[in-house]
Amino acid sequence: MPKNDDVVDQLLSSGQFGPEQNGTVVTRFSNQADVMSSQQPDSPLRRCYFRSHLESLVTGDRVVWRDGDPDGVISAVLPRTSQLERPDSRGNIRTVVANIDNILIVVAPEPEPYSELIDRYLVASEHHQISPIIILNKCDLDTERVTQVETMLTPYKDLGYPVVAVSANTGQGVDELSVLLTDRTSVFVGQSGVGKSSIINTLCPPAQAKIGKLSTARAKGRHTTTTADLYLLPGGGSIIDSPGIREFGLVHLDQQQLARGFIEFRDFLGQCRFRNCSHKDDPDCALRSACEEEKISAQRLDSYHRISASLGYV
Fold first, then answer.
1. Is residue 220 pLDDT above 60, yes or no?
2. How far apart are the C-alpha atoms of 73 and 102, rounded to whole Å?
3. CATH superfamily assigned to domain 3-77
4. Domain limits, CATH 2.40.50.140, in the chain
5. Hey, which CATH number is domain 255-310, 3.40.190.10, 3.40.30.10, 1.10.40.50, 3.90.180.10?
6. Contacts from 86-94 at CB under 8 Å and sequence distance 24+?
7. Which of 103, 147, 259, 268 would give a disulfide with 286, using CB separation of 3.0 to 4.6 Å?
8. 83-95 pLDDT, tens digit each
9. Contact assessment for residue 75 and residue 49, using Cβ atoms and an 8 Å cutoff
10. Domain ranges in the chain with CATH number 1.10.40.50
């Protein structure tokens, strides 16, 4: 029996545990997790062990647990309403967070954003039916650089995706963002250094999330957040800070799922002359025709081709 199971059995055999109750995983460690009580969310977090068959436990999971002294025990994980996944270093699909309502895609003038990463997050959110919100942070920086990012984000506004410009330094846009997050569970994603933790501290000062400084050498963020952490919002709802990642893998999606993740493509899919159309050089391609007629943006179609090529589909 794995060592962690031995610890759980020893704890349970002590008989010094309270009744079963519901809770939410706030932070997952290697063989333990901090749990927030559903009955008393403002009470101190409780460190809990869990058995090896619950290995997939992640931040945001709703669990059944029993309190103890000094540690509690998680006995079950409740069904998930949603989950966000990404491949690990070995290419295996791993759930990152669970029970999410919003995915908050944070970009900033620095580090320099690129549309392909935004599109990867949007495809993932569409696939998992999680509502996306794009956040332009550091909007108080140099006007020209902010304007360039706003121009890049215009196609997303045209598609109806919410785009909110905020500044963790000045507070601009924070109230507007807070309204969108009330009574919902939201996860922050984006490149390291875009200021996710700074926004979290502004929305929820008690979080005291770690703030990393951009590398002055290459303007790439240092990974200051190593685990996903959940924080309660003062006005209701919760937010999750996820580890900074510069790429978001979609290897678990097939080519059709990838294309449908671009919502403006959906009306044209299946209308190409060839069923296996690559949407590049094939004759009578409905997507390419739609792009020429400005019904879909060239930026998004180019992004689709780059992602499709990275997955080996073309």
1. no
2. 29
3. Nucleic acid-binding proteins (2.40.50.140)
4. 3-77
5. 1.10.40.50
6. 86/124, 86/245, 86/248, 86/249, 87/249, 87/251, 87/252, 91/251, 93/251, 93/252
7. 268
8. 888 777 777 788 8
9. no
10. 255-310
Render pLDDT for 6-59 as a digit per residue (tens, 0 to 9).
766 676 666 678 889 999 999 998 889 999 999 998 889 999 998 888 878 999
Q: What are phi and psi of 175, to 5 degrees?
A: -65, -40
Of 185, 186, 123, 189, the residue nearest 156 (C-alpha): 123
Homologous superfamily of the 83-241 domain (CATH): P-loop containing nucleotide triphosphate hydrolases (3.40.50.300)
Euclidean distance between CA atoms 233 and 14, whole angstroms:
36
Residue 252: is it exposed, middle or buried by C-beta count within 10 angstroms (0-12/13-18/19+)?
middle
For residue 4, is pLDDT > 80? no
What pLDDT shows up at residue 212?
44
CB crowding 62-99: b at 16 or more within 10 Å, else e: bbebbbbeeebbbbebeebebbbbbeeeeeeeebbbbb
In the 8-state DSSP scheme, what is residue 239? Answer: E
pTM: 0.86
Q: Given this model, what pLDDT does residue 26 score?
A: 94
Give the residue range(s) of CATH 3.40.50.300 domains in the chain.
83-241
Determine the pLDDT at residue 172. 94
